Amino acid sequence: MSKPIPPVHKYMTPGPITIGHDQKITKAEEVMRENRIRHLPVLKGGKFTGVLTDRDIKFVQGLRDLEIDKLLVDDVVREQAFTVDAESPLDQVASEMAEQKVGSAVVLQNGKLVGIFTTVDALRALSELLRTRLGH
After folding, report:
1. Which of 66, 67, 94 is nearest to 82 (CA)?
2. Residue 1: inside a domain
């Protein structure tokens, strides 16, 4: 008999580091670098509004005639983030991330940000599941 597929919340990073929408891009870059992360959920008034990625920052840094130190997170953040419910099955989340070619899924519970599931989390989940379900 096979085991049920675990929910994404079992493998997500709970209580992810976030940044306010009105913070400077340079601050966001610093937070990412210091914490060695590539995805930074953005909050406005405590509510999740989007995800800023290291790729977004690198893109705007490459634009000419742009004063990067004056840019705010709100100026750059993509509001079309991939979100999932905390109870979503892990296989469906991983499959959808692969299909959409995104590096993270923001995990919500009752509309509130509770975690983030990244490709690093997915690799940890894969490793654990292979060891516990297929290992000897």
Report:
1. 94
2. no
